[in-house]
Amino acid sequence: MSATATANSSASSTAPSTAKSSSFAPKRFIKRPDDKALKEEVESLKNEIKKLDLQNQELNVQISKSQIDQKVMDKRNQLQQDLKDLISKQSAVKNERNAINDQIKSIDSQLKKRIAEIQTQTSKNNFKNVGEIDARINYLDGLIDAGNLKLADERRFVKEMSSLRKLRKDFGGIEKTQELIDQDKTKIADLKKKLAGIQNKELQAQFESIQKELDEINDSNKSIISKRNELYDKRSEIKKQKDEKYDQIRKLRADFDEKFANFKQQLTEEKKKRDEEYKQRLVDEKQQRRKEQAEKQLAEASIPAFTEEINSIHNLLSYFDPSYVKPAPKGYSTNGASTATTSSENARKVEFPEDFVVLKKEQESFFAGSKSKKSKQHKKKSKNFTVAPDVVVSLSDLSIPFPTKEEEVEGTVKILKETLVALEEKQAEQTKINIEKAKARIAKLEAEEDAAEEQEAAADAVVAEEEETTDA
């Protein structure tokens, strides 16, 4: 591949990269919320609040002037305190009466239960107490003692007496229950007596008397009180209006804060987008450079091996043998430059024999091709055999000894031709080896770069996660 072709290939490969880089969308303008309008509205509301404060101060002055006589106020305050005390006492009395009533209800409920128990037991027979049972037992006992009864009646009466004695034992519990019932009745009577002694009439009379006196004071100062109440209402209304103004200010600031937060979020998203685009552009450029470098390395490796050495040998053969004709290229282009003439950077120091003469003036060009007859005759007449310095350098690069006299030229030409044949035989194989080595180097570099990109991506992911955690 020629240098011109390589340059054209590089130019064509960089064109897509430039086009891709310029395809990114233009930076989106994100407008910042206008806090000037907010400040103006807030300032306007604050001025309105100041005006309301002035009105409130005027009302306070009017309220301070609309005062009732201090003695009357003291009397009024005292009466109000007396009312509070009476209300507290009435509440205590009410609580006490409620407590007694609750006790009466509790005892009465217990009393009714006990009476029901006795009625349940006495309803099974005709006896209502132990006395009646004893009277019946004594009566039956008298009949038996008289001895006038039939044997069957006597047995029946004895059996009845036995049942009555058993019933009498059961009635012993009824007597205890009856005693408890009597006690409950006594308790209820005592509680009702106590309840009758706790009356609220006196407290109610005092309450009505004090309330009447308060009403008289209020009636006599009704106009002043009415005016004060009106002023109080106005002051309450001003307070309500101020609260509304403050609410408006808070709402304006909250709305602005929401807009500003949205603005910051959009900035963050735009920055993130730009960063991602920038990273993608770097990746694309890096991939393009890697592609160009791979193409360049493959292009260089695809140049037939030993091209420089073979060209150098052809030029040396033309120099030593003017009749030598350089063969046509074998289907490929060389680098177009004569490699026999090396630059000062690649030139190396060559040691010459002691009797070797180097011509420094009127030196024939290494690329001159065939020599003239006059030149040959001049060389034959020359006392010392001379070789141009660049020819010596080219032979040294090929590791071929340079001739020190005319007789050694034929041997040098022979070595050059043998070397040429050997290089041409190995050229295809070595070119293939060079291409494989270039591909291996490219694959290794790509693997290393891919691993580095993965590590960088992992590090970016960790940083992004930490930033999200910090924001949350």
Automatic annotation (TrEMBL):
Biological processes per GO annotation: intracellular mRNA localization
Acidic residues composition bias: residue spans: 447-472
Entry GO MF terms: mRNA binding
Bias (Low complexity): 1-25
Parts forming coiled coils: 35-96
Disordered, as annotated region: 1-33, 271-296, 446-472
Keywords attached to this entry: Coiled coil
Listed GO CC annotations: endoplasmic reticulum; nuclear outer membrane-endoplasmic reticulum membrane network; ribonucleoprotein complex
Name listed for the protein in its UniProt record: BFR1
Source species: [Candida] subhashii
